[in-house]
């Protein structure tokens, strides 16, 4: 008799996510801090919070890794936001050890105050901790337990921000340096992971922050999505996740087009004479489709020093008017003390501390 259908589904998802991780003997990296020995199989880590999604992921990796010729380890992050969090993190680490994962670490992080909000700050600190362990252990990949439900929530949040196609594309299956982060469960719903845990008698810890209405994602999960399903019927979560896949394909294609277009409209010489700004030909910009043109403008603003996370659609719309609705407007101020100004047939985007170089004939 085979495994429970939910268990079979999560194992298959993990197996597919690791199809490109070589099972041949690993070559010892020359990178400092790599702890692998010659002949050791590649290491894959699972990030586990103790919830149903990540516990199901940890169990599936523990089962599949030996069959793929891989080693499996785990990491849990203590955010320090709740009383007893250190003890709870150690419990999660012990559960991974009981699954025969090795190495396993519990990492405590400090979340500082930022203008991006507590959720974004926690995410940044968490990924920094995961990167640190992956680098130290020489891990080939880190598995994350985001599900189709998480993807739907991400798309809905992006829709509310009105940030465009890229925001609607949600989370990618593979991200990070050298394709480090893998999300095997983006096509699997949250109910399946919980069933898999029940079928395997895996203990699960439900983070109370996931039910706290103080957090935006929690309100989307417990209020917005149920309301949409009530009004529109079942299938909203699946439809939002499908929207993410389609939007990502479109966004990738447009980004590729914008990269090529940027080469044809840029008139400055990057990196010369200490000049880190960007100059673009306004006539050639005007000829581009708006979706491509705004991507070029975003790339230029980031290259000039604007923080990508603080650059919103409204900023790009104002800069775009310097191209499409030129009436002698003043320079546009962008995040990071970057400004965009039209100078004759050029659009100059630079940091406020810089002086544009003198044009040459």
Automatic annotation (TrEMBL):
Give the binding site residues for ATP. Answer: 49-54
Alphabetized InterPro entries for the sequence: Rossmann-like_a/b/a_fold, TilS/TtcA_N, tRNA_Ile_lys_synt, tRNA_Ile_lys_synt_N, tRNA_Ile_lys_synt_subst-bd
According to the UniProt entry, what is the EC number of this protein? 6.3.4.19
Q: Which GO terms describe its cellular component?
A: cytoplasm
Catalysed reaction(s) here are: cytidine(34) in tRNA(Ile2) + L-lysine + ATP = lysidine(34) in tRNA(Ile2) + AMP + diphosphate + H(+)
Give start and end of each tRNA(Ile)-lysidine/2-thiocytidine synthase N-terminal domain: 44-223
Location comes to: Cytoplasm
Keywords for this protein = ATP-binding, Cytoplasm, Ligase, Nucleotide-binding, tRNA processing
As for what it does, the entry says: Ligates lysine onto the cytidine present at position 34 of the AUA codon-specific tRNA(Ile) that contains the anticodon CAU, in an ATP-dependent manner. Cytidine is converted to lysidine, thus changing the amino acid specificity of the tRNA from methionine to isoleucine.
Q: Which family does it belong to?
A: Belongs to the tRNA(Ile)-lysidine synthase family.
Entry's free-text remark on domains: The N-terminal region contains the highly conserved SGGXDS motif, predicted to be a P-loop motif involved in ATP binding.
- Per its record, how is this protein called by name? tRNA(Ile)-lysidine synthase
């Amino acid at each position: 008799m085979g495994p429970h259908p939910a268990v079979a589904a999560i194992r298959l998802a993990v197996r597919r996510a690791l199809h490109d991780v070589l099972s041949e003997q690993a070559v010892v990296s020359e990178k400092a801090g790599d702890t692998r020995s010659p002949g050791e199989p590649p290491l894959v880590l699972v990030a586990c919070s103790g919830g149903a999604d990540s516990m199901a992921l940890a169990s599936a990796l523990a089962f599949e890794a030996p069959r793929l010729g891989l080693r499996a380890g785990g990491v849990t992050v203590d955010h320090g936001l709740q009383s007893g969090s250190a003890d709870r993190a150690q419990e999660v680490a012990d559960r991974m050890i009981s699954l025969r994962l090795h190495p396993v670490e519990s990492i405590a992080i400090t979340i500082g105050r930022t203008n991006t909000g507590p959720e974004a700050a926690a995410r940044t600190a968490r990924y920094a901790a995961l990167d640190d362990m992956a680098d130290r252990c020489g891990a080939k990949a880190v598995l994350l337990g985001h599900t189709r439900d998480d993807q739907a929530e991400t798309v809905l949040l992006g829709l509310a921000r009105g940030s465009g196609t890229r925001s609607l594309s949600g989370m990618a299956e593979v991200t990070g340096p050298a394709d480090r982060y893998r999300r095997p469960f983006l096509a699997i719903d949250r109910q399946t992971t919980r069933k898999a845990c029940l079928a395997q008698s895996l203990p699960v810890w439900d983070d109370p922050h996931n039910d706290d209405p103080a957090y935006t994602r929690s309100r989307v999960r417990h209020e917005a999505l149920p309301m949409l399903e009530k009004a529109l019927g079942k299938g909203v979560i699946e439809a939002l996740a499908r929207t993410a896949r389609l939007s990502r394909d479109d966004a990738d294609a447009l980004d590729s087009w914008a990269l090529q277009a940027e080469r044809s409209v840029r008139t400055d010489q990057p990196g010369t004479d200490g000049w880190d700004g960007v100059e673009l030909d306004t006539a050639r910009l005007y000829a581009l489709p708006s979706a491509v043109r705004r991507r070029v403008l975003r790339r230029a603003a980031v290259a000039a020093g604007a923080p990508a996370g603080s650059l919103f659609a409204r900023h790009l719309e104002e800069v775009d008017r310097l191209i499409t609705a030129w009436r002698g407007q003043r320079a546009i101020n962008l995040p990071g003390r970057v400004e965009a100004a039209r100078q004759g047939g050029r659009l100059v985007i630079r940091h406020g501390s810089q002086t544009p170089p003198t044009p040459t004939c």
